[in-house]
């Protein structure tokens, strides 16, 4: 089981178990110079959100993007957090209550089944969409839903060009507790953004292992 890509149900179980320690576990990435918060901020900036916008955070997890999104949409805007894991959403709900936010809606759903609301001002996904085998269909569907002046932005890990195979395997090993397997390195959501969106911007970070991509709807 440890060497295969997990089913959606198994991924849900993994993140239910991780939920209470997920935020703390990310400190390891900071220690090795992986600037998670900076990459999140960059992805959100690429959405060009306006005050009062509605923004969808696909795979929102414990709500680590919410503070940054609140800065963009303000108290009259709306954040819709979507996640497969009920326990991760519980953590996101705890964060929301602690902050006193009244404009956050949390929805338990597989992102491939979630329907983007008509009034959406932007769609975000950070370190989440690669976990879905339907990532390309999800991205295409969002492109079809968004108006041409609205954007989707993702921050994802990717297989770096030029890295030796042993180093890629080390990276996968570090990510195994999060359900990552070597087969995930064959998934290319940033290429899907290029394929399905217009006015695309792509930035590579952390020696090419991070891709931040965004584009306008069709």
Model description:
The chain is α/β, with parallel strands linked by helices and 218 residues long. The protein has one domain: Rossmann fold, CATH 3.40.50. Helices cover 38% and strands 21% of the residues. It has nine helices and seven strands; from the N terminus they run ααααβαβαββαβααββ. Strands 3-2-1-4-5-7-6 form a seven-stranded mixed β-sheet, sandwiched between helices. Helix 6 links the parallel strand 2 and strand 3. The chain is globular, with a radius of gyration of 16 Å.
Topology:
Blueprint: H1 8-18, H2 22-25, H3 27-31, H4 36-45, E1 54-58, H5 66-73, E2 78-83, H6 86-99, E3 104-108, E4 120-126, H7 135-145, E5 151-157, H8 165-175, H9 189-196, E6 198-205, E7 210-216
Parallel strand pairs: 1-2, 1-4, 2-3, 4-5
Antiparallel strand pairs: 5-7, 6-7
Helix pairs in contact: 7-9
Question: How many separate structural domains?
Answer: 1
Number of helices: 9
- State the major sheet: 7 strands, mixed
Share of helix, binned: 25-40%
CATH superfamily annotation: Vaccinia Virus protein VP39
Large-scale geometry = globular
SSE pattern: HHHHEHEHEEHEHHEE
Low-confidence stretches: none
Output mean pLDDT.
95
